[in-house]
Design brief:
Elements (H helix, E strand, L loop, with lengths): L1 E3 L6 H4 L10 E6 L5 E5 L10 E3 L18 H13 L8 H31 L6 H23 L3 E6 L7 E2 L4 E2 H4 L7 E6 L2 E6 L11 E4 L9 H8 L3 E4 L2 H5 L2 H4 L14
Helix pairs in contact: 2-3, 3-4
Length: 267
């Protein structure tokens, strides 16, 4: 288990939410207080929450890494092609398949951070040394996420591009509709850009994953609740293509107003 000190794992995705109309930067909302900010430039400095890596692979060599082994250039090419709706620009099929799985790998990396922190806090109450706490917390994360990672590796993935409504992105972008949706729905998703969504569905294949497919979306269809599920899972920040989208979320994250001085406390 190692601290991830390089760029934020979602920085390649955040580039698709850059506002470039005369002023380059990213609109974001802080989940801590509901404040809306504008981060100048391309570095996404607001996305600064620490990440701790827990290797989920069967290969013990993964344990020495500080983050998922991602092919950065292939991922960047895939994300740009998805946002623009140009599958021919995404690269060879093998590279596209690798990029789709890299997206899920990064999604899981972000997803287990809260579970890891909670496990560390729980074990910290026990008479354990710091390294024992870290090892026990990492073991809990592996027990929960390793089977999920192996399951998702065999899923079929589709890029839905040209969505009619913009998507949000947050610090925990992986959505498991089998758990979040009511009733449960048999797929997982992850936003690739404001108008592109990666969707994974169970596959009948048992030996190897199939190639990534691309579909133009004329409606949100079953993904109409994508943004709602994403907001439900947000912990640190949310980005959007406009201030209006974020302003609509402010009441949910804004702290309660302090009672006027001398007012009676609510019962």
């Amino acid at each position: 288990m190692g601290a991830h000190e390089s760029n934020h794992p979602l920085r390649p995705f955040l580039k698709n939410w850059l506002w470039e109309h005369g002023r380059i930067g990213t609109r974001y909302l802080s989940c801590a207080d509901g404040a809306i900010g504008y981060d100048e430039g391309r570095k996404a400095q607001f996305a600064s929450e620490p990440h701790v890596y827990v290797h989920l692979g069967r290969d013990a060599a993964d344990a020495s890494r500080t983050g998922p082994a991602v092919h950065e250039s292939g991922l960047a090419r895939f994300l740009k092609a998805a946002q623009l709706g140009r599958p021919d620009d995404a690269g060879p099929p093998a590279d596209v398949q690798r990029a789709a799985h890299d997206c899920i790998e990064l999604g899981l990396f972000c997803a287990y951070q809260a579970d890891l922190r909670q496990a560390c806090a729980r074990y910290a109450l026990e008479p354990m040394f710091d390294d024992e706490i870290r090892d026990a917390a990492a073991a809990d994360v592996r027990a929960a996420y390793q089977p999920l990672r192996e399951q998702l590796a065999m899923y079929d993935y589709t890029v839905f591009h040209g969505l009619p409504a913009p998507l949000l992105l947050c610090d925990v972008p992986f959505v498991d509709w089998r758990v979040r949706a009511r009733p449960p729905m048999p797929f997982v998703s992850m936003p690739l850009g404001p108008y592109a969504l990666l969707v994974g569905t169970p596959s009948a294949k048992t030996a190897r994953a199939g190639p990534v497919t691309w579909r133009s979306a004329v409606s949100m269809g079953p993904f109409k609740d994508q943004n709602r599920h994403l907001v439900d899972g947000a912990r640190a920040w949310i980005v959007a293509t406009s201030d209006a989208e974020l302003a609509a979320l402010q009441p949910r994250f804004a702290p309660p107003e302090a009672a006027p001085e001398g007012a009676a406390a609510p019962r």
